[in-house]
Design a protein that fits this description.
Layout: H1 2-25, E1 47-54, E2 59-65, E3 68-73, E4 77-78, H2 81-92, E5 98-101, E6 117-123, E7 130-137, E8 143-147, E9 154-158, H3 160-165, H4 169-172, E10 187-192, E11 195-202, E12 205-210, E13 214-215, H5 218-230, E14 233-238, H6 243-248, E15 256-262, E16 265-275, E17 278-283, E18 289-292, H7 294-300, H8 304-307, E19 320-327, E20 330-339, E21 342-346, H9 355-366, E22 370-374, E23 386-392, E24 400-409, E25 412-416, E26 423-426, H10 428-439
Antiparallel strand pairs: 1-2, 1-6, 2-3, 3-4, 5-9, 6-7, 7-8, 8-9, 10-11, 10-15, 11-12, 12-13, 14-18, 15-16, 16-17, 17-18, 19-20, 19-23, 20-21, 22-26, 23-24, 24-25, 25-26
Helix pairs in contact: 9-10
């Protein structure tokens, strides 16, 4: 019996252990393989103050009021909200990847004595800052060593956070030079080399008003407004420029300037001397000098011809109501009317025209573009090859008219509009296609 006792006892013990494992351990909720402890118990929305200390660099302090971040130290300035919001979000979602040392005796081996970066944060009612210290990268480079000053342990966090938090005071500044409401912009003024161009916006259209009244290319003008709104300082040069510094950087007599007009208000960018592919600049309303990238310099160097509308006609085939084409002694008229609920085209005698051919001709007319402009009026236009008068409108209540005169000038084709100065030169092939389309309607 004694020989059987021991095996029986073992069986009972094993059975009990198995039951415990089944009923207790195996019934516990499984921990997620991806779940990691958070370094801080805070949400991004709660953080209202951020302090960034970079060893050998700046110590920056920023505070949030309502939804706006302001840089408080080392200088008072508007802050880059996206940078600071990203920092706050990173702190709130910071995962401890793994604890590498519960009780370190030498923080220097982790690059934490001193840390490369130390980030402090404070919530609304918090007296003391929560802090994170960041040290060296691990040998593999995938993580960085980190710790909280109020804890002994050293842990790992993702290495991309080093770049997130290692930001200078300049990195945290709002680098936008001109701030304005795009919806309120109703004008634009450019000055370069003694020449001033002025533009006015009415509804969805831009026009040139100086040096003379003419149509403007919408995309080019809007592109410049966008460029001015998105021009960022590349480098901060002087916070409060003296007259001597203005002369030094070529801003006492700017090489170019651009002004956004909003009723009686304006926001102006001044450009000075260019050095090493960067140009000194300033907001006319602020004393500070900065440097900008060469793209805005290129944009402000555009000429009057660059801003002119190149299409000779504003009409489109679908919006045209009537068109009259004079060719020598002959005049051709096409007028749109309605028949059985459909648009039809008729000539001056009321005869139906081939709709497809009329619209093909109008499409070719609307596609004519100037390739260059001359300030004077070409003598060839005294003997026109073709004169076009058209009425058009996007709806039944709108009725606009325009007229364009064409002439052959040697091997070139020129054109003019009575509402614009100078002469346009255009592609001869495009004009030939219009003439062939007109011939097909006769």
């Amino acid at each position: 019996m004694r020989g059987l006792a021991t095996p029986l006892i073992l069986v009972v013990v094993l059975a009990g252990l198995g039951g415990y494992i089944y009923f207790v351990e195996m019934k516990k909720p499984e921990a997620s393989a991806d779940s990691k402890a958070k370094a801080f118990n805070v949400t991004a929305e709660q953080i209202e103050e951020l302090e960034i200390k970079v060893t050998g660099g700046d110590t920056s302090l920023a505070r949030r009021t309502d939804s706006a971040w302001k840089l408080v130290q080392p200088v008072e300035a508007d802050a880059d909200g996206s940078e600071l919001t990203n920092m706050a979000s990173s702190l709130a979602t910071l995962d401890v990847q793994r604890v590498v040392d519960e009780n370190p005796t030498d923080l220097a081996q982790y690059g934490l004595n001193p840390p490369a970066v130390e980030v402090g944060f404070r919530t609304k009612d918090q007296k003391n800052q929560g802090r994170l210290q960041i040290g060296d990268k691990t040998p593999t480079g995938g993580d960085v060593y980190a710790k909280r000053p109020d804890e002994k342990r050293v842990f790992l966090v993702s290495s991309f956070l080093e770049d997130t938090f290692k930001r200078s005071a300049f990195d945290l500044r709002d680098k936008t030079i001109l701030k304005f409401d795009r919806e309120k912009v109703d004008g634009l003024e450019l000055t370069k080399g003694g020449t001033t161009l002025q533009f006015a916006r009415k509804g969805a259209d831009w026009s040139i008003v100086k040096p003379a009244s003419m149509r403007a290319d919408y995309a080019t003008v809007e592109g410049l407004v966008t460029s001015l709104s998105s021009t960022l300082m590349q480098k901060f040069v002087a916070p409060d420029a003296t007259p001597a510094e203005l002369r030094q950087y070529g801003l006492d007599t700017p090489s170019a300037s651009a002004s956004i007009l909003m009723g009686s208000a304006r926001a102006s960018l001044l450009l000075g001397r260019t050095e090493n592919a960067e140009t000194y600049a300033k907001d006319a309303a602020r004393p500070s000098i900065m440097m900008v990238a060469p793209t805005i310099v290129t944009d402000l160097s555009k000429t009057l011809a660059d801003f002119r509308r190149k299409e000779l006609f504003d009409l489109r085939s679908f919006s045209t109501k009537r068109v009259e084409l004079k060719r020598g002694a002959d005049t051709f008229v096409a007028e749109k009317t309605s028949k059985d609920g459909k648009d039809v085209w008729r000539d001056a005698a009321g005869k139906d025209l081939d709709t497809a051919k009329v619209e093909d001709m109008l499409t070719k007319l609307s596609g004519l573009k100037a390739v260059s402009f001359d300030a004077g009026t070409s003598a060839a236009l005294r003997s026109p090859t073709l004169t076009v008068q058209a009425s058009f409108g996007e709806n039944t209540d709108e009725n606009r008219t325009e007229s364009v005169t064409f002439a052959n000038a040697g091997n070139a084709v020129v054109a003019s509009r009575p509402d614009e100065p100078g002469t346009a030169k255009l592609d001869g092939q495009g004009f030939s296609d219009v003439m062939q389309a007109l011939d097909s309607l006769r």
